[in-house]
Amino acid sequence: MSIEIGIVGPHDLVDEVADTCEEQPGIIARRLDYDHETQAPAIVEAHAGQLVAWLFTGVVPYTLAREADVLSRPAVFVDYTGATLLQAAVRLLHEGHDVTRISIDTVAVGDVTTTFADAGLPVDRVRVLPYRSGLGSDDLIAFHRRHRRSGTTAVTCLSSVHEALRQEMPAFRLAPSSHAVRTALRQLMLQASSQAQEDAQIALGLVELPDADGLLREVAALGGTLAGFAHGTHLIVTTRGPLHEATAGFTTLPMLRRLVDRYDTVRIGFGLGNSAAEAENLARRALSRARRIGPTAAVLALRGDTDIVLDATVPMPPAREQNLAVIAQRVGLSVPTLLRLRQVRDATGVEPLTSRDVARHLTIAQRTARRMLHRLELAGLAERTGNLASGGSGRPLTLYRLTL
């Protein structure tokens, strides 16, 4: 079975990365190149419904697409550390550059220091500008120009920066190594496989309505089927993928609003499970909670005691504009807990967090912290940014960025 992924990056790197990806059986790489990295979000949006995963040639276009909220499928970027940095140092030496006197952008300081130390190279005259959200190509160009008089060589990850500098100072553009591309592709395939398994999960909905007339059209939009379940209760059968799309990532349920226009009482409970029996049990739990909320409510129940209250109107605005009490009700956490999580977020700045970090800050069990982060992720208030080795034989810890 073939899988088609989108390769997003500048013209020359897209072909190079795509060729490496297509060495793997079953991979079809669609080349989606740009003239400037700021075009990446528009490219993703234009092809969003055609591809199952995204591979970006660097962190900058990936971050721009993520912040534009156009990534609805698995996506990763090629890392420029390790083998890529070492390969660049060798090429610089071969071309006669002084590798101890360079300015390098986008890569983290620690990665540069570690790579140079491993190669036995001093770093006291190496200047580094790590990438962070909000930095543009003009900022990177200005950074390199500040060090031009000291005879440095500009090492950049962006083609736009290289084009602006190469006529006025020694400039070298980083290109991902084949090893880095293969590593990113393996990570992407794991994410895509996991997503495919999740999309195939069974989704059952129990709906309390006087009749089923208003449900027929709604069920068709979910790609599901409708059946009677009990007196006054109807059963919707679908899968996770269509439900996730129809609820804008498990945040809103427009069909609830439309049904409320026809009926005084509408309660909906959805359950997601790996079997029909599990999904039904979770749907019963969700419906029970919907009854406690009021005459019109919809709840999605997941494994791990996670319940999400689905909004009847529109997707939630940015978290800073929301009432914490509303967030608390939707994610099943208390307002004091959310306030403490905000404090953790503010204390750590832009650094991503793991369940171990949250457990330590909140003085709770790591399993509880993991469940909290999962609930926040489903509600769009936390997003995964990668993985961190656990330091033992266990599975890697997931890195999250809190947005609540």
Structure write-up:
- The protein is an alpha/beta fold and 404 residues long.
- It is built from 16 helices and 16 strands.
- The strands form four sheets. A six-stranded mixed β-sheet has the order 10-11-9-12-13-14. A four-stranded parallel β-sheet has the order 2-1-3-4, sandwiched between helices. A four-stranded parallel β-sheet has the order 6-5-7-8, with helices on one face.
- About 2% of the residues have low confidence.
Structural class: alpha/beta
Q: In what order do the strands lie side by side in the largest sheet?
A: 10-11-9-12-13-14
Mean pLDDT: 85
Q: In what range is the share of β-strand residues?
A: 15-25%
Q: How many helices does DSSP assign? A: 16
Helix fraction, binned, reads 40-55%
Global morphology: elongated
Number of strands: 16
Q: Note the main sheet.
A: 6 strands, mixed
* Spans of at least 5 consecutive residues with low confidence: 314-321
User: Between the first and last Cα atoms, what is the distance in angstroms?
Assistant: 39 Å
